[in-house]
Amino acid sequence: MESASIQEIVQKGCRLGDIPLLKEVFKSHPQFLNQTDTQLGWTPLYRTVICGHESATRLLLNLGADPDVKSKIGETPLHQAAYNSQYSIAKLLLDYKANPNAQQNDGDTPLHHAAFKGDFSMAKLLLKYNSSPNIPNTVFGRTPLHYAVDYGHSKIVKLFIKHNAVTDIEDIGEKTPMDLTTNTDMISILLKSKEPSELASSIDNSFNSISSIDANPNYSQQFNSKFSFISQTSNYNYEKGLDLYEEKTDKYAENTEKTLDVASIPYHGRSVSSLFEPDAEKSYSDVRPSNLLTDRARIISFGGNDKKSALYSWISSVKLEGIFDTLISGGYDDLGQMIASMKTSLPITERMLSEIGIKKPGLRRRLLAALDEEAKSFPKKGKTQESNPFQCWAASSSNTGLINLQNLKQWLEKLNLSHLHKSFVDAGYDDMEHNLALMNSSWFITDDILLNDIKITKPGHRHRILSKLKEECIGFETMKKNNGRPSFKKCAEGLIIEKSSTSSACGMCLLM
């Protein structure tokens, strides 16, 4: 099996938290355990953590996953666990020696995230594992204490001071934490803290220990030597890692419940939020061997983040699952806000999507068309949308085109242009139903798009394609999966009619 196909299996297994699949694929292909994807630099462990699968996270760690591999923006799995208030997963990563002071490209540590959000329980957990409140980020030169003060999280400020936070570190604007607040209670807390001179030795020791970790290229190797089941190449011991996973699962869950101050953890961090697996994720027949196929119901969780769950469910419904990770990484993780922005004077643009890493123009335009469709579907305030019994069936919520829909390859073969198939796929126009639906949207395919995006240089070929798209696009009105497509039959006179519907075809449809 090709490397790309195996990586796709791994990514899907991690998104779903599919432990049987992950066990099987890593047994045969252990070299993929710490491999990053080419687009975002995510490891299987990072993807599993971001989707909130604790058991799958534990499995990967036991099999030898390195918790300190960074993504392209410098994030480790612990950064994501801290940002999403995943307390049990964060503790699990820390128990497997994840670096609590790892810095992103902008210099933020996991503790910066906890301070910014005011997550006391996460801050307390990170500090217990020697996270430092005195590390400035590289963008603003601010420490976690700066953020805790600036956002008024007095409880966290007290916690940081208790753990030797230095109160007079200046950011790049020469502001100390005290310069960022006018709150008298906060100022009082800072004034009551220890004098910086009394902390000098402890701070030096703290920075020395951090520097020794970051400066030591053999850090991961030293960590691996402590756990014989962890390996990077030839020392890989799958069976031992699997045995350890099975042995520790129940015991670890029990110890975690005792260790974490569960009563103090906010409900939003412990909520069980999940969605049923989308249709597109129920089968791996396109990428994995038949002996791996299963047809069982499963639930996919995003670690209590309902916004991510809603986004994934929707992105699957418009057949664009492949860009889900990119959207999350780029900060487009709230479907409601994305749809709402399309109705403002500053909507999401192709340029914005290109900047976050969606390189194929077709994928960008298909996403924007789908968002536009959702934005237009919201009825105006105070009005409800009534059904029209005389509505043409070609304008229904599912695609009811007059043609028998073919895939892109078949469609191009019909035009004697099969050699252009790769050009369409490379540009992100690989879904024929979407291509036809785009023609009925604001994001329709034009001659310029065929020339500049799909790289079709011959004018005659472009004209042939556009003519056929315009001819066949009638009835293709939605970007959503057409799972319930109605069936049609020809009457004696040769007109196409719907078998079971109260809707009738309009005059234009009859003419067509």
From TrEMBL:
SMART domains noted in UniProt: ANK, SAM
PROSITE patterns: ANK_REP_REGION, ANK_REPEAT, SAM_DOMAIN
Domain (SAM) ranges: 403-470
ANK repeat spans: 40-72, 73-105, 106-138, 140-172
Keywords: ANK repeat, Repeat
Pfam families listed in its UniProt record: Ank_2, Ank_4, SAM_1
Protein name: SAM domain-containing protein
Organism of this sequence: Blepharisma stoltei
